[in-house]
Write a structure and sequence with these properties.
The structure is a homodimer of 234-residue chains. With 234 residues, the first copy, chain A, is an alpha+beta fold. In chain A, 40% of the residues lie in helices and 17% in strands. In chain A, the strands form two sheets. In chain A, strands 3-8-4-5-6-7 form a six-stranded antiparallel sheet. The structure holds a DNA duplex (30 and 30 nucleotides).
DNA sequence: AACCCGATTTAGTTTATCCTAAACCGGTCC
DNA sequence: GGACCGGTTTAGGATAAACTAAATCGGGTT
């Protein structure tokens, strides 16, 4: 039973980031990764929060120096904000990896658990977990794990849905937040490291035929856009 | 990135207990263990919160059916409240045990970490942790771990400070919330399972001489009152 | 240049928790 | 039995983060 001190207590000094703040920073980071400045409604969608609520929070983040913000123009992480985001992301991904490797979690269950633990786990715990499973470089979905000093591999990969018929590729990562999707991907054998060839693809965003090992599978473009790959030379 | 929904969201249905609520229930349980109904200021002290704040919260707990409360009379856990408290306590103690056994945490560090994780860890995670380390019956400080169904060993032990000179005893548990104390106890060899004999004791709550294995140590009555033992037959 | 529409922001509320200061109760002390 | 005292409770605020509804901005249309 340790202190409490929070919500409505007259604030005095520098307290750690709150859970919502960490979630906003992660979301902003994610949006910046695949595009430019994060707009209010992108954030609202991703966080499942009303757009109006985002405006308010974003102002508070700016007050804390975590983002730069111009009304009607979207937010952008400051260096401090990016560092904080990467710290949270490291926690999340190390925890995911640990749950999978050390505790036998299925890869479609780790995300939800990590989502809660990432806010409570200390850096010491995260470091011990990372050490216990051999300092992994990526999480179970293939996302890169930032180092303790906030260095992250930001290599951009292409979507499987962007490949042309005949191209061979290796799966680098799959989106981690949809359990159903992950279960299906596991079932058809798509996971980081696996080789996938586009056998054929229908025009106008139609379904793709994929060769995974010896089997061929049909997948829709939505699913294919959730799989990031590295193109392999012919 | 999963929903948010919290603090100021118009509440709709039955949501899980909040962190403060879980902490209050644990504190009330602890006080009930070593005495009678929990008074407002006992709670305030233990939670490091102003007494006035406790009054308000306690009313809310009563509204939720977790405690029974009569103004100026203190609170008492209802069955639902006790079940909830034991669930949190199980999480806390399993996590403590896991940190110590599986991740090499020192026993004076596990409490603080568990204090935060207990609110975020799912029952599935806790069960997996317990399994991974062989379903421990007690945490590293000797406190009993409730089963999944909320059964806990409520055996009362006596304080080492209550023994008379010459009595032999086995350490059952030590209080877990003071890191300093734990480091010192570890240093002089006091931990659950160890045999301790009171060599002599000064009158008027003076210091005690303890024999632990081959060595003799002087300890003050405050320290001795934080060590719970089982008296051994002569 | 006036207009419109969707994206954003502001205004005003709600909830959960905490705080301080002031009022209050119950039980001793004379 | 009245005064006092410490433990409690009430009153009144503060904060963080959401929400809804209403106002507003910016950019493309005619």
């Amino acid at each position: 039973m340790t202190p409490r001190r929070a919500r409505g207590a007259p604030q005095d000094d520098a307290r750690p980031l709150t859970e919502p703040v960490e979630d906003y920073l992660k979301a902003i980071y994610a949006i910046e990764q695949s595009g430019e400045a994060a707009g209010t409604s992108d954030l609202a969608t991703r966080l499942e929060i009303a757009p109006a609520s985002v405006s308010g929070m974003v102002r508070r983040l700016a007050d804390q120096g975590l983002v730069s913000y111009e009304r009607y123009r979207g937010v952008r992480l400051t260096d401090a904000g990016r560092r904080a985001a990467l710290r949270t992301i490291r926690r999340h991904r190390v925890i995911e990896s640990y749950l999978a490797k050390a505790l036998g979690y299925a890869w479609d269950r780790v995300h939800a658990e990590a989502e809660r633990l990432e806010h409570a786990a200390s850096d010491e715990l995260v470091d011990r977990m990372a050490e216990a499973i051999g300092e992994p470089l990526t999480d179970p979905h293939g996302d890169p794990i930032p180092t303790r000093d906030g260095v992250i591999d930001e290599t951009r990969h292409q979507r499987l849905s962007d490949l042309a018929a005949g191209q061979r590729s290796r799966v680098k990562r799959v989106s981690d937040d949809d359990g159903e999707l992950l279960r299906y991907l596991a079932q058809i054998g798509i996971r980081p490291g696996v080789m996938v060839t586009v056998a054929e693809r229908a025009p106008f965003d139609g379904p793709l035929s994929l060769r995974i090992g010896k089997v061929t599978v049909q997948v829709g473009p939505v699913l294919a856009s959730r799989v990031m790959v590295e193109l392999l030379p012919d």
